[in-house]
Amino acid sequence: MNCIIIDDEPLAREELHSMLQEISGPQVIGSFSNTVAAEKFLSEHSTDLVFLDIQMPKTTGLEFVEKIPKSSMVIFTTAYPQYALESYELDAIDYLLKPFNNERLQKAVDKAMHYNDLLAANKENRLEKSTLEFMIIRSEKKFYKVNFADIKYLEGLKDYTLIHTTSQKIIAPMNLKTIHQKIPLPSFIRVSKSYVVNTAHIISFDSYSINFDDGEVPIGETYKENFIRIFTDGQL
Predict the structure, then answer these.
(1) Confidence bin at 37 (pLDDT 50/70/90)
(2) What is the rounded average pLDDT of the residues 72-77?
(3) Same-domain status, 169 and 59
(4) Pair (65, 43) in one structural domain
(5) Disulfide engineering: 1 pairs with which of 26, 30, 226, 234, CB 3.0-4.6 Å?
(6) How many domains does the chain contain in total?
(7) 195, 153 contact by CB (below 8 A)
(8) What is the pTM of this model?
(9) How far is the C-alpha of 121 from the C-alpha of 84, rounded, in Å?
């Protein structure tokens, strides 16, 4: 897997490049101080992953992400925590808050590599059947039965959806909105542009995130009031 770095700070670019070499991360094939040069490079080279700073002159990372090819994954790198929720709304793989260490960088890179591997292995995935209790997804000449009750949450990844169940993760060949509509259970609630959760598996939550036994999901600002109202009023 390859990557490029976009950051207007020279020291930040050099440090990230060095850290990626230390953790045996993806190969860095380009490093840019501005989005103009980066956009030209992306139009001419196939790029798997983009490390993108947010606060930059002229064009911010949040604005530039719309010009990045859909086939490229994005990890935001910034010193401003207030952009975290918005970055997930833009289908970012992860959000690194500066300064971050090798361990945190490795976690983000592993997530990107895992997603990349899932897509490569599941290009021929198809939804074969959907009932009131389960769906059947075809993957690599096998048929997987996914019980809705076993799904903890759905994670939208561009034109695909990563289904997190109690026992495995499966890529579904449809976007988050489409697969959510195929699940008839009222316990599934949209909590951001990128996530739908099954409230039956929630351990705890606050105003910013929902906790499961294996991780957490951010709550989007526009979805927060509806989620808290439904969950606390017992409307499930």
Answers:
(1) very high
(2) 92
(3) no
(4) yes
(5) 26
(6) 2
(7) yes
(8) 0.66
(9) 30
